[in-house]
Amino acid sequence: MNQKLVQSLVQIITSLSDEERQYLERELQNSSEEKQIADLEHKIKKIENKYQMSSHNFYEKFQKGELGDSMDFFEWNTYYEMLNSTQVKVPEKV
Questions:
Q1: What is the pLDDT of residue 90?
Q2: pLDDT, position 94
Q3: CA 16 – CA 4 distance, rounded (Å)
Q4: 72 CB contacts (<8 Å, ≥6 apart)?
Q5: Is a pLDDT exceeding 90 seen at residue 53?
Q6: Cα separation of 30 and 26, whole Å?
Q7: How many C-beta neighbours within 10 Å does residue 65 have?
Q8: CB of 80 closer than 8 Å to CB of 40
């Protein structure tokens, strides 16, 4: 760990105004959410390629009980629902 860098960052952050700190927190949160979304998209794409099926088609069939109880399917279902819930919550950037 680079202690001088961390100390410099602490000094910079503590010198920020409340408004600047809030902006920094929002940017860090957005960055974290974007990474989580990208990770979910990557996992979903990998499973879609493995089973040669779109997530939308998979989800419809899985919800109807047409695909079985494979652990992959339960994970895929979870990833798909998580991604859909994040897309509802993510605000547009200005």
A1: 44
A2: 45
A3: 19
A4: 47, 50, 51
A5: yes
A6: 6
A7: 8
A8: no
Residue type, 39: D
Contact 43, 89 (CB under 8 A): no
Report, as an integer, the average pLDDT of 62-73.
92
Instruction: Give dist(CA 46, CA 31) in Å, integer.
Output: 23
For residues 81, 82, 86, 87, the Cα torsion angle rounded to the nearest 10 degrees is: -30
The DSSP secondary structure of 28-85, one letter per residue, reads HHHHHHHHHHHHHHHHHHHHHHHHT--HHHHHHHHHTT-S---HHHHHHHHHHHHHHH
pTM over 0.85: no
φ/ψ of 60, rounded to 5, equals: -60, -45
